[in-house]
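Supplementary Methods, section 5.1.

A reviewer requested that the exact input to the structure prediction be made available. We therefore reproduce it here, unchanged from the version used in the analyses.
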Amino acid sequence: MYLHWLMFSLASFGWVSAAGNCSYKSLVEHLGLGNDDIQMTSLRPVINWWTPTQVFVDLFVTSITEVNEKAQSFSTQVTIVHGWINEFTLWDPEDFCGIYYCSIRKDMIWTPDIGIIESIETEYATLEGPYVQLHNRGFVVTSDTLALTTACKMDLHLFPFDIQSCTLTLQSAMHSVEELKISPYSDASFLTLNSQKAFQTQGEWELLSINMSKANTSAIQITQDQLTYKITMKRRPLLYIINFIVPVFYFLVLDVASFFMDGGGGEKLSFKVTLLLSISVLLLILNDMLPSTAKDIPLIGTYCSVIFTLIGISILETIFVNYLMSKGEEARSVAPVQTTAAVNDVVKGTNCTPESVTDRNEEQSCSLIILKQILMEFQATTHQNQDKKTSHSWTRVARIIDITFFSLYLITVVVFITVLCKAWFPE
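The structure derived from this sequence is encoded token-by-token as follows.
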């Protein structure tokens, strides 16, 4: 009696090797897992075939590595935990020295054939878990950490202030709903909280929530069970605000400020053309990022395109105003030259100096010539005043057009920015 108690004490402290049923080997042999039994490795672990195998699943998102808007794909790293009942792996822990659970290789036992429907490309971020864990009441648990690339339909209308939702649908490859049922083990709040705690990246995307829903689908004349996880994430827009929205807005402000520049030279026109080319470069960069198959035009595309159009119209207005100003300058500069030349020709054609007047007839002739010269000067002055009025009219029309266009342009810009902000931030 004393010897039996001593051996039990030493075994409990690990000082002697457990004998008999106190080893994992004896437990595995008792369960018949090491004999390549087809019932244990290939067939559903149920005694009666009409009993469905209930598989419980938990999915945790540990990182979002990439969201490709152009390809409409979603790359993430997830940990999937499966658990199910195996009716052939039951034992009494008291018969095996208190062994309540043990780990065995996956190829020694049946595992459910559950895959992800949306998967485009699947790699193992770490080695696939080679073991499953058996519990004495027949519950089997396995855990895999996977790097997934899945298809995801994205609505980029509010880009870059958008919130995207991508789904991961778990479904058996061949088993019908009468054979295999998939159910969530934990609720949505538990999955969301633990995923946010385990999140390994602080990149462009922020994980908001993980929700789940169940459904049945019919394929190959059988009905199969589905468990869909909806992953909702929010984009961090700071990078796009700095690189796109703010520069384009600055270009618009500079274009408004260019109306206060002197339009006499070509500096104003060159400045506006430079702004237009700068926005063109940003539009090319934006075109490489956004998909060409989107149903709705993203608001950032509308934002850049409208500002591009406004600056283009502003350039046309500047060209037209410069044309009117040049017409006024031509009328102002040509008229004095023509009138002065006409008067000089008359003066040169006369020889009415006091020394040259010898008789009364010549005096009358010189008087007529002097009167003609006075009349010519009056006509020239009148013509010059008319030309000045014409040049002032061209300049006045150009200034009125410029001021009116600037007012309408400023009102259009304010209204457009207000409407765009309401569309981008509806709340």
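The first helix runs from residue 2 to 12. These observations are discussed further in the main text.
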